[in-house]
């Protein structure tokens, strides 16, 4: 049985998680480059209180960026493993379970930012669990 639909949905989900990893990497890069961030939000009336807000924003952005980056990389790796398991119909049940778990956990871990990739992974996981192979009738048996 061909598992083309599951593989295609897994590829789309991995690409979405790749985009999330790029966003996370950009957030980490911005945290490490304070000058760039200060130039983008520069205001001539900037006082000490606003500078504390920028510090807190940078710290939060760095933490969130690392969370997005690590979650997305783990999701991409497990998605690739699932695609290999789907290819050739080696172990579609295991691949489906992996995709379901990763899709749900990554969506929760990123506070909803990974929902689009998670939806593709969950759909592919459900298809991997539900689809049954067709029964082939051998005429020589009769």
Could you tell me how far the N terminus lies from the C terminus, measured between alpha carbons in angstroms? 24 Å
Strand percentage:
under 5%
Please state the structural category: mainly alpha
Largest sheet: none
Kindly state the mean pLDDT as a whole number?
Answer: 85
Q: What count of domains describes the coordinates?
A: 1
Radius of gyration: 22 Å
Taking pLDDT < 50 over at least 5 consecutive residues as the criterion, the unreliable ranges are none
Shape: rod-shaped
Give me the number of helical elements. 5
Secondary structure: helix percent: over 70%
Q: What letter string, H or E per element, gives the SSE order?
A: HHHHH
- According to DSSP, the number of beta strands is 0
Domain DUF4064: 2-108
Pfam family, one: DUF4064
InterPro entries: DUF4064
Transmembrane segments: 7-30, 66-86, 98-124
Task: Please describe what this structure looks like.
It is a single chain. The chain has 142 residues and is mostly helical. The protein has one domain. Helix content is 77%, strand content 0%. It contains 5 helices and no strands. Helix 1 runs antiparallel to helix 3 (48-86), helix 1 packs antiparallel against helix 5 (115-130) and helix 3 (48-86) packs antiparallel against helix 4. The chain starts with a helix and ends in a 12-residue tail after the last helix.
């Amino acid at each position: 049985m061909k598992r083309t639909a599951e593989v295609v949905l897994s590829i789309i989900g991995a690409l979405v998680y790749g985009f999330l990893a790029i966003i996370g990497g950009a957030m980490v890069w911005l945290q490490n480059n304070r000058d760039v961030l200060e130039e983008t939000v520069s205001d001539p009336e900037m006082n000490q209180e606003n500078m504390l807000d920028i510090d807190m924003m940078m710290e939060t952005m760095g933490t969130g960026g690392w969370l997005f980056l690590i979650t997305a990389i783990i999701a991409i790796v497990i998605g690739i493993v699932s695609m290999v398991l789907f290819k050739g119909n080696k172990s579609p049940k295991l691949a489906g379970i992996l995709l379901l778990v990763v899709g749900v956990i990554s969506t929760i871990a990123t506070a909803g930012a990974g929902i689009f990739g998670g939806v593709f992974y969950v759909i592919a996981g459900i298809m991997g669990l539900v689809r049954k192979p067709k029964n082939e009738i051998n005429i020589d048996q009769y």
